[in-house]
C-alpha cells in the first residue's frame, strides 16, 4: 500500500472511530508501526490530526473568524447580552473578552452609569465607545475618545483607578 493510500485510510479511520492506534493499524495493513507513525506525523504537520502517544486524535476544530460568526444566532447573542447587562451595577468595572456575544454586550451598555470597561479587543472597545459613555481601558492603554487611539495615557499609573477596579468587583 502506498503512503498516500495509508494516509487516506488513517483519515477515514479517524473520521469513523475518532482515534487511530498506530499498532492496530500497522497490524491490519501489514506494515511497520514506523511507517504508520511517519504517516501520522506528516498528517499532523498538515494540521489534519493531532499526534498523541501511540496514535492520533482528530485535530481541534479551528474557530471561524469573527467576520463569519458575527451574523450567526444574533437574537440569542442579543438576549444573552441584555441579561448580562442587567447584572452590571452603576460604577462597576467590567472586563470584556473578545467575541461576538461580548460585542453585542458592548453595544448594549447603558450610558450615565459611570462604568469602566477593560478589554483587549479593539472591536469591543470601539463598540463601547460608540454606544455608551463608559470609560474604556484597553490592555496596553486607555482609548482616547477624541482620537480613538489607545495608549494616550496609562491608567495604571493612577492608584485611584486600581483601587476602583478592585472595589468594583464585589
Q: What's the helix and strand layout?
A:
Blueprint: H1 3-17, E1 20-21, H2 22-29, H3 33-45, E2 49-52, E3 55-58, H4 66-69, H5 74-86, E4 93-96, H6 100-108, E5 116-119, H7 122-131, E6 135-138, E7 141-142, H8 159-168
Parallel strand pairs: 4-5, 5-6
Antiparallel strand pairs: 1-3, 2-3, 6-7
Helix pairs in contact: 1-3, 2-3, 5-6, 6-7
Task: Please provide a written account of the structure.
This protein is α/β, with parallel strands linked by helices. The chain folds into two domains: 3-58, Orthogonal Bundle (Arc Repressor Mutant, subunit A); 66-168, Rossmann fold (3-Layer(aba) Sandwich), CATH 3.40.50. The protein is built from eight helices and seven strands. The protein has helices at 3-17, 22-29, 33-45, 66-69, 74-86, 100-108, 122-131, 159-168, and strands at 20-21, 49-52, 55-58, 93-96, 116-119, 135-138, 141-142. The strands form two sheets. A four-stranded mixed sheet has the order 4-5-6-7. β4, α6 and β5 form a beta-alpha-beta unit. α1 (3-17) packs across α3 and α2 (22-29) crosses α3 (33-45). The N and C termini lie far apart (64 Å).
Instruction: Specify the overall morphology.
Output: rod-shaped
- What is CATH's topology name of the largest domain? Rossmann fold
> In the CATH hierarchy, what is the class of the largest domain?
Alpha Beta
Spatial order of the strands forming the largest sheet: 4-5-6-7
Averaging pLDDT over every residue, what do you get? 80
The helix/strand series, from N terminus to C terminus, equals HEHHEEHHEHEHEEH
- The total of beta strands comes to 7
Domain tally: 2
Tell me what portion of residues adopts beta-strand conformation: 5-15%
Strand pairing plus helix content: what structural class?
alpha/beta
As a whole number of angstroms, the C-alpha radius of gyration is 25 Å
Count the DSSP helices: 8
Show unreliable segments.
152-170
Overall helicity: 40-55%
Q: How far is it from the N-terminal to the C-terminal residue, by CA?
A: 64 Å
CATH architecture of the largest domain, by name, is 3-Layer(aba) Sandwich
Amino acid at each position: 500500500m502506498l503512503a498516500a493510500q495509508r494516509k487516506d485510510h488513517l483519515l477515514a479511520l479517524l473520521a469513523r472511530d475518532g482515534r487511530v492506534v498506530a499498532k492496530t493499524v500497522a497490524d491490519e495493513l501489514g506494515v511497520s508501526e514506523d511507517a504508520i507513525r511517519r504517516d501520522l506525523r506528516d498528517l499532523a504537520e498538515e494540521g489534519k490530526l493531532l499526534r498523541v502517544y501511540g496514535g492520533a486524535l482528530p485535530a481541534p476544530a479551528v474557530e471561524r473568524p469573527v467576520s463569519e460568526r458575527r451574523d450567526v444566532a444574533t437574537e440569542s447573542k442579543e438576549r444573552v447580552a441584555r441579561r448580562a447587562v442587567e447584572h452590571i451595577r452603576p460604577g462597576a468595572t467590567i472586563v470584556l473578552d473578545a467575541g461576538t456575544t461580548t460585542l453585542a454586550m458592548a453595544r448594549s451598555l447603558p450610558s450615565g452609569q459611570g462604568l469602566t470597561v477593560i478589554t483587549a479587543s479593539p472591536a469591543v472597545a470601539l463598540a463601547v465607545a460608540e454606544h455608551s459613555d463608559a470609560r474604556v481601558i484597553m490592555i496596553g492603554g486607555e482609548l482616547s475618545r477624541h482620537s480613538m487611539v489607545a495608549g494616550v495615557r496609562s491608567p495604571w499609573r493612577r492608584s485611584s483607578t486600581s483601587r476602583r477596579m478592585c472595589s468594583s468587583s464585589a
